[in-house]
Amino acid sequence: MLYPQEFDVIVVGGGHAGTEAALAAARMGCQTLLLTHNIETLGQMSCNPSIGGIGKGHLVKEVDALGGAMALATDESGIQFRILNSSKGPAVRATRAQADRILYKAAIRRVLENQPNLLIFQQAVDDLMVEGDRVVGAVTQVGVRFRGRTVVLTAGTFLDGKIHVGLNHYAAGRAGDPPAVSLSARLKELQLPQARLKTGTPPRIDGRTIDFSQCTEQPGDGMPGGVNADSPVPVFSFMAHAYGGAAMHPRQMPCWITHTNTRTHDIIRSGFDRSPMFTGKIEGVGPRYCPSVEDKINRFADKDSHQIFLEPEGLTTHEFYPNGISTSLPFDIQLALVRSMPGLEHAHILRPGYAIEYDYFDPRSLQSNFETRQIQGLFFAGQINGTTGYEEAAAQGLFAGLNAALQVRALGGGNAAASAAGAISYTGERWLPGRDQAYLGVLVDDLITKGVTEPYRMFTSRAEFRLQLREDNADMRLTEVGRQLGLIDNARWESFSRKRDAVSRETERLKSTWVNPRNLPAEESARVLGKRIEHEYNLFELLRRPDVAYGALMDMDGGKYASSDVSRETLGALSEPVVEQVEIAAKYAGYIDRQRDEVGRAAHYEKLRLPPDLDYMQVTALSIEARQVLTRHRPETLGLASRITGITPAAISLLMVHLKKGG
Ligand code: FAD
Fold first, then answer.
1. Annotated binding-site residue numbers for FAD
2. What pLDDT shows up at residue 663?
3. Which strand (E) or helix (H) includes residue 22?
4. Does residue 559 surpass a pLDDT of 70?
5. Does 612 map to a domain?
6. 248 found inside a domain
7. Cβ atoms within 10 A of the Cβ of 285, count?
């Protein structure tokens, strides 16, 4: 049966990529359909119910800055929040939350169900409708044919998914969910380059059988007894203040820490001969940064203990997630290894750990908007692009969804007037943030230029311009362009504009407020600045000093000692995020300016477009290998070309000479 409505964007898969993709396209005014196996699993966390962390938290804030759902859903469901690296510089500080998985899913579902322009339909997609080299829709398991101008595929770990526990294996998308076998076969038929990856999850434990007195308690920030008990409980979303800030979080809970020991390691080794990883049953490559416990014991044989975090899965369940013992060893070994750890001697396992193998697609065959090169209108996002993690998936989903919407607009479809933003000023056919603009830009650029050899996850070390890609300024970097794209609703826009204006007004005020040895008494100068000032300074210059805090400076300010056109009082009370921006801008101004210069120097060739029909084989100055690589990848810009594995700076110079000659 052909469904009577044609959609602008059809999103297949209701995981973290799919939900953000569908929401983004709908926010931009596209008639959007989200097709997924099961409405009950919308926003389901397949593994650990935790969001954020180093690099990942940055992505969540960026998704939020572009109007996405993940951060607010985490604020609504988070039962423990921490700022990681809180004693380090702002570039690497990252928010991490433990979420109640039921509340998280409920929050995502509510957002989806209330999103204008978005419809949801529960059914497996078995086939794609392709006419010529363009996708025109999707066909479900019972033969309902949905026509769509674009399709965003976000099937996660489901494509030909195979679960392994010991030497047993069975087909599944994840535990309890069916695999997508027909769709996998169809994609193979379409000859999109693909391979297999694997990931794993630990057994879950019934908290009633844990002896917590044998474990170390780990409260979150702002909770009594924690390392950062005096800090406020963090929030994720830039909009959290509109809903009461940390007051929107449910009750907070501690995590607990136990550890493996030599007996645990002996038990794990005793299962190696029945491990699907070591017996060659699993062919897919797993995440190096999130290894299974058997992999850890094998690779770091000299370590005789590993820390294991016992993380609550929610407020209404006894289920605990033992972070650090992901495993696909046989169940008898799983039980013995769990019970060998302090506090877990009588533990009952609620769900066995397992590994899952699945198809992924080589992201080097995607264009810079995540559209496949082979089939027009077909976009890929999330785990199927070779990544791992909810945050990486959400960021890609939003990216693919918004680019599908831009394509629809370029084809003369969509209804910009129905977008979240009303008036839309972005007129491009695709949007890709630069590596200096967003972690999202780093993620997309890395995937399409380098591909993956193992599941890709985000780290701050992947970003060369990380001083300007901080969590705290994700809104300053992205909300404005998000508004132009049509992703940002009026409430968020007004809130952002107020913050941006307050930051700029306060920065200007500090720069035009001067103190000098005459108007600042020696003792006041010594109290706030640690010494007497020797000549005239403006307050912004003083704030650049590492040991001078904004609060202390304001004590000294107030028009009492200083002269200024705008007095502090006329600005009203400044919120914590505004003060944070002003302070970071002052303290890191030197470094940030230097990084801006670097970005400026790189920019001259970064955006230089390479002709799509350029015959690289004729660029004889290049080595044969470089010509072959460039022919295979067909990068859109010189910047993208420069980051392809195998393309050297010398090759880029030669290419530039060739282009200048008009080649
Ligand atoms: P998913 O969250 O997998 O969502 C896919 C969605 O698509 C599902 O809703 C599914 O029902 C739907 N779907 C699939 N095929 C079809 C179809 N044909 N028709 C209709 N609907 C379809 N990440 C980490 O960061 N660390 C970890 O340790 C970790 N461990 C993991 C362990 C396991 C066992 C699994 C399964 C995942 C693990 N992950 C881990 C990965 C994390 O779950 C994913 O990165 C993330 O969920 C990917 O999001 P996604 O939206 O791409 O896909």
1. 13-18
2. 58
3. helix 16-27
4. no
5. yes
6. no
7. 17
- Write the ipTM: 0.98
Q: Which residues line the annotated binding site?
A: 13-18, 286-300
Residue 172 and residue 48 share a domain: yes
> How much distance in Å is there from the Cα of 62 to the middle of ligand 1?
21
So what's the pLDDT on residue 464? 85
- CA 355–ligand 1 middle distance (angstroms): 13
Residues 279 and 320 in one domain: yes
For residue 565, pLDDT beyond 70: no
CATH number of the domain within which 556 lies: 1.10.10.1800
What is the best residue among 11, 16, 33, 46 to mutate for testing ligand 1's pocket, by most ligand atoms within 8 Å of CB? 46
In a domain, 469, yes or no: yes
CATH number of the domain enclosing 149? 3.50.50.60
Report how far ligand 1's centroid is from the alpha carbon of 33 (Å): 19
Which atom of ligand 1 is closest in space to residue 382's alpha carbon?
52
109 and 182 housed in the same domain: yes
Domain count, the chain: 4
From 16, 48, 104, 157, give the residue whose CB has the most ligand 1 atoms within 8 Å, as the site to mutate: 157
Q: Which of residues 197 and 418 earns the better pLDDT score? A: 197
Question: Which atom of ligand 1 has the smallest separation from the CA of 17?
Answer: 51
Q: Which of 603, 630, 652 marks a domain boundary?
A: 603
55 and 175 co-located in one domain: yes
CATH code at position 649: 1.10.150.570
Range of the domain at 567: 500-603
Q: Output the CA 46–ligand 1 centroid distance in Å.
A: 6
| C-alpha separations of 636 from 398, 630, 633 in Å | 21, 10, 9
Position 570 scores a pLDDT of: 46
Pocket of ligand 1, beta carbon within 6 A: 12-18, 35-38, 41, 46-48, 124-125, 154-158, 173-174, 177, 180, 183, 199-201, 290, 356, 382-383, 388-390, 393
Spatial separation of the C-alpha atoms in residues 429 and 21, rounded to whole Å: 17
Best residue among 121, 186, 325, 383 to mutate for probing ligand 1, ranked by most atoms within 8 Å of CB: 383
**Which contiguous run of DSSP H or E holds residue 134?**
strand 134-140
Q: What is the mean pLDDT of the chain?
A: 91
Q: Say what the pTM is.
A: 0.92
Nearest to 84, CA basis, from 107, 60, 102, 101: 60
The amino acid that residue 172 corresponds to is A
Burial annotation 371-396 (CB, 10 A radius, 16+ → b, else e): bbeebbbbbbbbbbbbbbbbbbbbbb
Position with higher pLDDT, 43 vs 230: 43
197 with 208, same domain: the answer is no
Together in a domain, 326 and 209: yes
**pLDDT tens-digit series, residues 138-147:** 999 999 999 9
DSSP label at residue 618: G
Between residues 409 and 561, the one the model is more confident about: 409
Helical spans, DSSP H, in 570-623: 576-587, 589-606
